[in-house]
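Shall we go through a protein fold together, starting from nothing but its sequence? Please make up or recall a protein chain and show it to me in full. Go ahead whenever you are ready, and we will take it from there.
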Amino acid sequence: MPNECWHADNAWTTLLGGPHSTNYDMTAKRGLILNDGTLMSFYDADLPNCLYGGAIVGACGAISIDVNGFKGPNRWGRDIFVFIIVNKPQNSQFVGLIPYGSLYSNIPPPWTNFSGCVSTVDGQFNGLACAGRVIQENGMNY
């Protein structure tokens, strides 16, 4: 059953408007719509003891948030931001939510790799790490 609390498949894009990675298809995940229209979609890594070793060792899942709901532009780094649910990632005492792209993830500043938050080069993950950048720089400086 499709998630009616998130955008239809491929109806959201990377920071520069390109197609997003199918690894981050949130349409089949659980979600909710807040009273102000904000969309939230939840991804459970479904691994024992949160042993996911991708972006952050100790990641238990992710929350994607579209701050203006179904209104456009529906792009990572513009109105869609990703946060990782963690349980003591490697070399950290942190437990809770980590903005993807923060100092605790594998895409820390300066966000220059292919799945960062850059406005000059697009890729299927570009914009995924913008939550960390926006918080670190206190604004969308890209």
Notes: The chain has one helix and five strands. Residues 57 and 129 are 16 Å apart (CA to CA).
